[in-house]
Amino acid sequence: MRVERFHDLEAVSRAGAEEFARLAKASPPRVPFHVALSGGSTPKRMHEILASMGRDALPWDRVVLWWGDERTVPPDHPDSNFGMAKRTLMDPLGLTRFHRMEGERDPAAAAADYEKLLVTECGKPPVMDLIFLGLGPDGHTLSLFPGTPAVGETQRYVVANPVDSPVAKGKTVRITFTLPVVAAARHVRMLVAGPDKTHVLPRALAAPSPEVPSSLVRSPDLVWYVDEVAAAELPR
Ligand code: 6PG
Question: At a CB cut-off of 8 Å and minimum separation 6, what does 181 contact?
Answer without folding.
Answer: 36, 68, 118, 125, 126, 128, 131, 157, 158
